[in-house]
Structures are given as C-alpha cells and as structure tokens.
Amino acid sequence: MSMPANSLPQGAAASTPDGPRRALILPGGGLRLSYAAGALSEIFARGLTFQHMDATSGGALNLAMLFSGLGIEEICRRWRTLRMRDTFSPMPLANYLLPSRFVAASASKSFRKKVYPHLGIDFERIRAVEGIQGTFNLCDFSTKTNRVVSHREMTEDFLVAGMSLPATLPPVEVDGVHYLDSGFIQDANLMEAVRRGASELWLIWVMGNVPHYRSGPLNAYVQMLEMSANSALIKEMQHIREINERIARGEQPYGHRQPIRLHLIKPRHPLPLDLALYTGAITHDELIEMGRADARDYFASMTPEGVPLEPETLKMTAQNPGLQFKETMAGGFALGVGEAAEGQARGKRQNQRLVMHAQVRIDDMTAFVRDPEHRGQLTGSIDFAPLGMGMEATTGVFNLFKPTDDPSMTFMVYELGFQHEGKDYYLAGRKEVRNGSIFRLWPETTTLYTRLHEGTDASAPVIGAGTLSLGVADLMRLLSTVRITEANGLSARLKTLCSFFTFFARSLWDTYVRHTRKSATPVNGLSENPVKGSQE
Prior knowledge:
The chain is an alpha+beta fold. It has helices at 34-45, 59-67, 72-80, 93-97, 109-119, 123-128, 156-162, 190-195, 217-248, 274-279, 284-301, 340-349, 365-370, 441-445, 472-480, 490-512; strands spanning 22-26, 52-56, 133-140, 145-150, 172-174, 177-180, 200-204, 261-265, 322-335, 353-362, 375-384, 388-403, 409-420, 423-434, 447-453, 462-469, 483-485.
C-alpha cells in the first residue's frame, strides 16, 4: 500500500518528540536487504518513529521505497515478488573475455529498467518528501571519501552508484566524478546521525562477522567487505563511546547533553550470501521472516541503554548444518468450544476450516538431535475465515517427539502466536505419539489437536478448538520443500539429511515397534489433559 503523495514516509516522526531524537540506519548487505524489511516491520509495529533516516549500499533500496511512499508491508510484498533474474544484465562481451577490459560482473540496466520500477521507487516523490531528514551515502572515487547525499538531491544515478560495489556493478559518472558503493569505506554512517542531533540510533546490521576464515573466491571477496565494514563500524562505535565520555564530563559535543544509545538488530549467524537467492537455497520470504524473528528477539531483551559500544557486540557465530521444511495442515475448527473433537465436528457442520501454513527451521542438526526436547523454530501464517486470512505469526514453538509426563507418549508441538485487529491470539497444537500398534503411526503423526487461546501463550483462555491433519498429498508437498542449510558439499548435505531421518525413523521405531518408555518430563505450556476430548 502506498501513502498519499504529500504524506510522511512510514516511520517518520510527525513532530519533534519530548524524548530522544531517533535515527534509523540502514546499511548494505547485497540483495538480502529483505531481511531488513522484516526487521523494519517489527520496529514500525511498535510505534517507533525517526527524525533522520540514513542508508548505505543496498540499504538505500529500503530507504528509497519508504521515501517513495510505500508502507512496510507493501515493501515486504515487493521483495517477495522480486525475480532474481531481473537483477542481472550483461556487460559487453569484451568485459568477460579480456581481463584487461573487465569492469564489473553485471551492468546496471536491469536495476534501472526492472528492479527499481518493481520496487516502486519514485525519485520525484523521494525528492519531494518534507518533515524528515533522509541521507544516502556514496563513495567519491576521486577523493576516496564518503559523500552524503540528501534525499532532496537523490537521482537514479546516485542510487545506482550507491550500490555499485567494485567488480559487481560499474561506477557511475555524475558531473565528471565516478561514484561507487561506500561499503568498503563504511557501511553504516552512525556519526552522520549524531551530527544531525540523534541520540538514539537504530541499526539493522547484516554484515557477517565470524572468527574463522572461509575458502573460495566468493568468500574471499565477501570477507574483504566484511573486514572493511565491520572495522569501520567499530571505529564509529568507539567514537560515540568517546563522545559519551565527554558528555559525562559535562561537555556538549554536537550539542548533545545525554549519552548516545545504539540499538542493534542483527542475525545470530551470518545470512546466506546473495548466491543463495539466485540458486533458490533461500527466498526473500524466508529472509523477511528471519528479520522479523531477530527484531522480536531484540525487543524482548533490549534495555534503554542499548548495546555495548564494543567490538564484541558485532560478533556472530558460524551456523552449523541444519534443515528446514514447510508443512500445511488443515481441518474443521470452531470458535466457542474447548475440545478438538467438538470443534472439528462443529467446524465441519459449519463448513469452517482452519489452515496452518508452517515453516520449520532447525539451525543445528547435531544440537537438535541431542536436545532432549528436540526444539526447532517455527514461523508461518493462519487462515481462518471467522478471524482473517493470511494472519502472520509473530512467535512460534516447535518440538519433535518432546517427552511428556507420560513415559509412553511424546508430543510433536506446533504453536503460533499472532495478532488480529489489535488482539493477541495463540494457536497451540500437538500431535500425540503413543507407544502402541504400528497401525496407529499414520493417524497419530498426521493429526494435530489444536486450541485457540485469546492471549499470548497457551495459559490464556481457550476460545476455539479443532483438529488439523496432513494428507498424503500434503506429505508429498512437505518432502518436496525439505532443504539442507549451511552444509558445504554433497557429502555434508547427505550427512545432515540422514541424521534427521535417522532420528525420525528411530523415534518411530521406539514408539510403534519396541514400545520404549521415554524419560518422563513435566508438560510445559500445554494442558495436562489431552486436547482431543471425546476422540480419546
């Protein structure tokens, strides 16, 4: 959805606040900036507004969309529908055949003719925005310095130049000066925000920062960028720490009387590189959900003081091989009942179905198998006509063969929290896997008994119930979505896949053939009584 032509961009402060002046800082990260769009949706959902917005490298795409009048959900939609093949256009043949003629891997024509129009970028609207400061960063190649361009000066040439990393896109000449992406100089301009009076900085950082050195030509290039960008950001953070020390001594650098705080949203592990978007190993939809999840995690643990202004703040951990898949379950569901069987029956009579579109992510397969509760991450959406369609989950819980207080039974747990029309809801479902006949394997592992709670967790009042199921065709679709993540080489991918299916098959064997009694564990967050009611 676009804003009216003369309205402020979403997230812009309509007036000077009584509290701190805020700046939103959007660094680069290739075309993975859909992650930042997901994080922005959580920031804006909490009502945060900003007097200054600054962007570098690919972050300029999100800022340009905001200043073009697009709301954040529309921005996410446009990222989801961006065709990666539209981001490439060939250079002249000599560029590839003659090393001495090589300039860049791709021309910028595709961005100008396809990507910018698809993303809804409108330069006239960008330049016309009033009531907020917008700044874009470019590398002036003639002086090897960073140039800050106001949104009122913004042009297509400047936007292309600002995301033209050396060897990826050609430099852009404007008034006799060649401009490039500033990523190798600095990828986040914190001090520009400080100089403009901001004392609360919000930074969405996606540049990888792990201690081990990776091999391969692509990693070699990326690591050069990571070293430059992270070291420049660390220097900016140290500068701000020195400013805060001066403020504590009674000075007023740049007019500041209160210490400057930094709030940082970043992934725990480095995001997959752009190549993964081109090969389909990851999608913009998945990156958006990752950004949302990391932003929610930050808000859950943040303090008013923000993050420490230390190099360790930027560190990430290497991600181990994992697995992800999508699963869709549907079935009769009704409001006003508390037991699954009754809700299923009433839902069928009233022709009411609830559909859960779930995506399960296991980031570390070895840790997942060793974990007694076998926890993964769950995201997704819910379709239920009496409430709404496509309701995006804001929280999720997933367990596979989770022990219970009954040593003969384990749960497969699927729980999604979401909001609708300002209210919190929590859909809590579980598959009940009991020791018994092998003929119970299929119905028990494909039937999800669910309750809908009005609140933020499974302790809230129950307002609906039903039974969702997975059919044979659904299972085939599930298997087609299984993907191995962060595994280098065919051998590592096969090992990860075998590890998961061995664990899954062994758990089924122990339940339906050996009838192994599991270690009893108190049920946490679930009703002590089975939710399926009269189906017992």
